[in-house]
Design brief:
Layout lengths: L11 E2 L3 H8 L4 H27 L17 E5 L9 E5 L8 H21 L11 E5 L8 E3 L4 E3 L14 H15 L7 H23 L9 E2 L14 E2 L8 E2 L3 E2 L15 H4 L5 H14 L6 H11 L9 H16 L3 H13 L5
Helix pairs in contact: 1-2, 3-4, 3-5, 4-5, 5-7, 7-8, 7-10, 8-9, 9-10
Length: 356
């Protein structure tokens, strides 16, 4: 992710590099091969994104006659190739086809649009009706999904470790929220600001799933990527906001490395300074605040987090303490000295992040 200010294009994947690195070292070529190819493809796309940033990303406008406050979705089929966007297979308002992957992608784009509009009055990723494009069936045995600054891309998985990446709706929401961050705080994709960037995507990805299912905070599973892991994997998801570090413990994948508190903060140069690992700490803080308040998590806890992300005061190089302090201020501004403020203060205290 670039860090020059403004709404810079990004390349963010849902499966962390450390997971693919582990898979790439497997003795079984059926596991190692797809992981290595995915890492190579991700490296290519990341470099391509940087070059696009230098020369300028193409502008994306709503189609003629597009109605404000309505989604403008287009799903493409890459047909297991890597040229984007691919063949157009479904457009806004068209009926579902026979391809379940296409239908899930279309529905997930709509669910993400609906959460941001209904809960926060935001018209698409950029708040200006940005068209939502997605490409499915990307490459062969591609073990990832990503937002490249302009659109969503989904792999089918290798069938051994990962299944179709359109299955978990929170994966779709996670990646599209990287777009929201791109157009708002534009958090630097390294270290603590990068972990906050990833956490924003997990938070709103989970809220999109909860909103779609009509779940309260108590009813939600707070898992990111549930249903994505193949049956042979010992695990339930990619990450757990309720209990970071417990999403999987597998002979091939290893153990989920996410910490839940600052006591176990991981210092590493890999994964852009551990952005997918240390995001467990702000993830857990949100879970604690949301469950303490009860009800629908997108309403009060989600509103506070959204206010900070879009309020203009969150700097692109913000640390956990900076973000935490802003959530306290946002809670005061919107809810005064009520239970919302106390829930936020206690949540950050529990994960060991100072708010003053």
């Amino acid at each position: 992710m670039t860090t020059h200010g403004g709404s810079e294009p990004v390349f963010c994947t849902v499966v962390p590099p450390h997971v693919l690195d582990k898979l790439a070292q497997a003795e079984d070529p059926a596991l190692a091969g797809p992981a290595r190819r995915t890492l190579e493809r991700d490296a290519f796309e990341r470099t391509h994104r940087r070059l696009t940033t230098v020369v300028g990303a193409p502008s994306i406008a709503a189609p003629p006659g597009a109605e404000p406050g309505k989604p403008h979705r287009t799903v493409y089929d890459a047909r297991h190739r890597t040229d984007l966007p691919g063949k157009k297979v479904r457009t806004e308002g068209s009926e579902p086809g026979k391809d379940a992957t296409v239908n899930r992608a279309y529905a997930g784009l709509g669910a993400t649009f609906e959460l941001f509009l209904a809960a926060y009055g935001r018209d698409s990723v950029d708040a200006g009706g940005l068209p939502l494009d997605a490409t499915v069936h990307y490459d062969e045995n591609y073990n990832n999904a990503f937002w490249n600054g302009e659109q969503m891309v989904f792999g089918d998985g290798d069938g051994e470790i990962f299944l179709d990446f359109t299955i978990p709706i929170d994966v779709i929401g996670h990646e599209l929220t990287h777009g929201v961050t791109q157009y708002t705080a534009n958090l630097t994709y390294f270290g603590q600001p990068g972990a906050l960037n990833e956490s924003m995507s997990d938070v709103f990805g989970s809220l999109i799933k909860q909103h779609t299912l009509g779940q309260t905070a108590a009813e939600a599973d707070w898992l990111i990527g549930a249903g994505l892991l193949a049956p042979r994997v010992t695990g339930s998801a990619l990450r757990s906001m309720k209990a970071p570090g417990t999403a999987y413990d597998d002979d091939v994948l290893g153990k989920d490395p996410q910490p839940a508190t600052m006591d176990d903060f991981v210092r590493t140069g890999r994964d852009n300074g551990g952005v997918h690992i240390n995001s467990g700490i702000p993830n857990h803080a949100f879970y604690l605040a949301a469950t303490a308040l009860g009800g629908h998590a997108w309403e009060r806890a989600g509103q506070i987090w959204y206010d900070v992300l879009t309020g203009g005061r969150l700097k692109k190089d913000a640390l956990f303490t900076d973000f935490a302090a802003l959530t306290v201020e946002a809670a005061k501004d919107r809810y005064r000295d009520g239970e919302e403020l106390q829930a936020v203060l206690k949540a950050w205290e529990q994960v060991g992040v100072r708010t003053a």
